């Protein structure tokens, strides 16, 4: 806190009337203060502070001799001061301040507001007051005939100014609004000429050549011999502070110019301070809240997008998808994106945000980690399988209790939609035959053409997907393994789909290429007949294999052909597919062909297919398809069996 004050008190002992003093800033004991006047730590005289309807006075503490005692004339005097009026509003303030010459230190009985701390309603205008004042009034008080709300006036014994002028200065003919900035005021009285001159200027300007007010008036009758000089100020209903930064006075001479004055508080500093005291806690609380919410959000997101990633998975990096990515791709696994629901979970359509590739994401929930490592290993290795009749597995993602498999999206969906009942679109025979051949070659690839034997375990129409060109593609290979992994055979439930399960698979729980062939056989019949492997017919259950078998048994296997095909099919091909279907779904595993042979039959010479024959066979392999055909079985009373061709014919493959 700097307090710059230079005091010159030159008291001429010989001539006391030549008093002169200069305050470039104040100390509280320099002046006699009353009311709410005070001196700030940095040396500003603050006549009033932000208090309403109050007043303050500050007087030079010693009496000043204004008159020659021998002839009673008021001496010339000169004073200059720098003041500032600060209000809570930019252009409004109340009430005003005045330089005053009064018979007493302080003005007892004076009122605040429009009385400026100078007079009260009883003594206003009374000649016994002996008060001379120069007012800077910022409120237009009509009772005192004020000219405006921003004027300077000379008051003698009362508030009805003898003369007044709008606050301003003539250097540039500008009016100077009392606007909170510091301004200089000069008051000069020439005792010889009996003239009072008042000038105003902004602090940056010098004293104007032409005074704002120039008024002839002999102060001799008004002032006493000994007077006090000082300032008075009052506030009204607007919070206003009146400051005096510096003051100099000289009797019989020119008052010294002021310099190096203390600084005013920054405009609006109080406001800023008030604002800050309110805003800071708010800001702080907001920041804390934002941080907290961000944290919570982060935690939620972190949990939402949490994944399980273990060391052993690191080598599968390329196949690993971020959960967030899949979440975005499927628009948050929206129901709208749901493609279907299967035995393992829901399948969602999505578009990878980075590459814009269309994908199908299968969400598989699993409760145990048991066998997960092997399973993922297998899935990932299966992901390396590439064949035009397999649905490409692009990768996976693992979360707590959940495995997500990412497949290429097959625009035409799964085959089952086109087969059963009255589908919106049916496939014609050539399309079906192409799909069959495709699936056969896909399965052959899994069984024999990849480094290791991959058993599909769940061959069926719903796992055959159709790509954009209506190629049949096998999907979901190896998935069924998730359920028959590890556990002991007693409790392991057999994965696969009812109606596609080979009898020995049900017995042993072991899936083999041969059980795949069985399911493929059922699939062939489905495609040719357009029927489900097991269909409820009233109270009865119709088993497709048995039914086709019975048709064949009755000598017309083509009766089983899908009615939806009409006459638009090649009989030999349909017959081949139906017979091959029966052969593949033979109860006896050894009777089933291998996929290589199946492909040969389908692709090559149709006559290659061994003749299926009815009746007791030499090998005695029974093919019992009794269920659902009681009448047939009982009535016939013979065992249906398939002739199984010599192994040499069928053997091939590996
Ligand atoms: N890659 C894919 N592209 C397009 N649609 C798909 C894809 N994979 C699955 N779907 C759709 O999602 C549905 C559900 O598939 P999902 O494999 O879960 O069930 P499913 O094949 O009927 O039974 P399972 O669980 O035994 O495989 C399918 O019927 C198919 O319409
Ligand atoms: C104004 O001054 C008075 C008296 O000195 C004091 O009590 C009051 O707190 C001050 N108000 C402000 C706003 O500074
Ligand atoms: C006061 O007036 C008398 C008579 O006019 C004069 O002699 C004297 O010098 C004056 N004193 C001062 C201090 O001017
Ligand atoms: C009083 O004295 C002053 C200075 O001494 C002089 O200028 C002035 O004219 C005198 N006044 C009267 C009324 O004599
Ligand atoms: C007005 O002021 C005078 C002194 O200046 C005082 O004697 C008087 O009592 C005051 N009147 C009222 C009504 O306050
Ligand atoms: C002026 O004040 C004096 C003393 O206070 C009083 O005697 C006188 O009546 C007042 N004059 C007027 C006009 O009020
Ligand atoms: C100020 O105004 C006066 C009268 O209106 C005029 O004579 C004078 O030239 C003006 N001065 C400036 C600097 O504009
Ligand atoms: C007062 O006016 C007279 C005449 O104009 C002049 O000589 C004198 O210097 C002035 N006095 C002061 C203190 O300015
Ligand atoms: Mg499936």
UniProtKB/TrEMBL annotation:
Coiled coil residues, start to end: none
GO CC terms in record: membrane
Pfam families, per the entry: Lectin_legB (PF00139), Pkinase (PF00069)
Protein kinase domain location: 333-609
Keyword terms: ATP-binding, Glycoprotein, Kinase, Lectin, Membrane, Nucleotide-binding, Receptor, Serine/threonine-protein kinase, Signal, Transferase, Transmembrane, Transmembrane helix
Domain of life: Eukaryota
Signal peptide: 1-16
UniProt membrane topology term: Single-pass type I membrane protein
Subcellular location: Membrane
Family note: Belongs to the leguminous lectin family.
E.C. designation(s): 2.7.11.1
Reactions performed catalytically: L-seryl-[protein] + ATP = O-phospho-L-seryl-[protein] + ADP + H(+); L-threonyl-[protein] + ATP = O-phospho-L-threonyl-[protein] + ADP + H(+)
Main enzyme class: transferase
Record field: transmembrane: 275-300
Binding site for ATP: 362
Protein's UniProt name: non-specific serine/threonine protein kinase
